[in-house]
């Protein structure tokens, strides 16, 4: 067994080197798309941070999900975040699996270009939505009387522009319609459904997305409408990007064809 592992190690290293070479070239070719998508994640976080200043705590609105689902409570609010973290981490690991495994079907950079395009389009709609109508947050720290329900007036522009993403995710208020957690979840699951190879895991991924929806409502992180709107909005947006935008598929196909040729060339060079 040690001899077999030692013999396979050079092959694995050559595989990693070949994939890294190609992915770096794809990063260089698509750097503008990637940079724009990453920068917009900050803009989206800034918008969510800004709406917290405008949040006005009030009575929780009547909600069918709150009535039908058992409440997790503050002590078990971590269950929803744990589920989301598992989905997020699983997707990230899947996107980088071509660096190690031989059953290659995707290119990491191209997958993330597509994912970022989905996210940006959905987040633009989300920003317009939660700034249009301000709803009282249903989460426990957003209730009236909580010190976290409103942010103090910023003393400087730096305080407004510097974002604590962890605090915003866990203690944000006001950015309700529609759920950001569900945007990421549905985008990840749809992308895996399109490019993944294991049918059982695809079905499990959709099941996890449904479970995540219930957990978000049960933990009172969002109203039910936030989750419902996310389900049809994200699916419609991704369908539009996939089917309607001219040139997207042709460009992506060219990238994949060129990358395939480069992978073959790089692999042969490394084997020599």
Automatic annotation (TrEMBL):
Its GO biological process terms? ceramide biosynthetic process
Entry keyword set: Lipid metabolism, Membrane, Sphingolipid metabolism, Transferase, Transmembrane, Transmembrane helix
Compartments reported by the entry:
Membrane
Q: Which family does it belong to?
A: Belongs to the sphingomyelin synthase family.
Q: A GO CC term?
A: trans-Golgi network
Q: Name one GO molecular function term.
A: ceramide cholinephosphotransferase activity
Q: How does it sit in the membrane?
A: Multi-pass membrane protein
- Asked if the keyword Calcium belongs to this entry, the reply reads no
Extract the Pfam families matched here.
Answer: PAP2_C (PF14360)
Per the UniProt record, which residue ranges are transmembrane? 33-54, 77-97, 109-131, 169-189
Which InterPro entries does this one have? Sphingomyelin_synth-like, Sphingomyelin_synth-like_dom
Q: What is this protein called?
A: Phosphatidylinositol:ceramide inositolphosphotransferase 1 isoform X2
Domain called Sphingomyelin synthase-like: residue spans: 172-240
Which gene is annotated as encoding this protein in its UniProt record? LOC105133108
């Amino acid at each position: 067994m040690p001899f077999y592992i030692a013999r396979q190690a050079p092959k694995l290293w050559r595989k990693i080197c070949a994939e890294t070479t190609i992915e770096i070239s794809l990063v260089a070719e698509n750097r503008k798309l990637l940079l724009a998508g990453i920068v917009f994640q900050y803009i989206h976080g800034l918008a969510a941070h800004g709406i917290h200043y405008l949040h006005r705590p009030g009575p929780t609105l009547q909600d069918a999900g709150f009535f039908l689902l058992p409440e997790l409570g503050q002590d078990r609010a971590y269950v929803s975040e744990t589920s989301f973290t598992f989905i997020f981490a699983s997707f990230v690991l899947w996107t980088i699996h071509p660096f190690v495994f031989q059953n290659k079907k995707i290119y990491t950079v191209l997958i993330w270009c597509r994912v970022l395009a989905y996210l940006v389009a959905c987040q633009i709609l989300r920003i317009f939505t939660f700034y249009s109508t301000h709803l009282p947050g249903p989460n426990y720290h957003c209730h009236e009387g909580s010190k976290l329900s409103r942010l103090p007036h910023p003393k400087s522009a730096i305080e407004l522009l510097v974002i604590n993403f962890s605090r915003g995710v866990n203690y944000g208020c006001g950015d309700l319609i529609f759920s950001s957690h569900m945007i990421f979840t549905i985008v990840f699951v749809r992308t895996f459904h399109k490019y993944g190879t294991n049918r059982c895991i695809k079905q499990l991924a959709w099941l996890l997305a449904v479970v995540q929806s219930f957990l978000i409502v049960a933990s009172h992180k969002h109203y039910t409408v936030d989750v419902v709107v996310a389900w049809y909005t994200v699916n419609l947006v991704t369908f539009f990007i996939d089917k309607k935008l001219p040139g997207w598929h042709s460009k992506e196909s060219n990238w994949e064809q060129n990358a395939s040729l480069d992978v073959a060339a790089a692999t042969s060079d490394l084997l020599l």
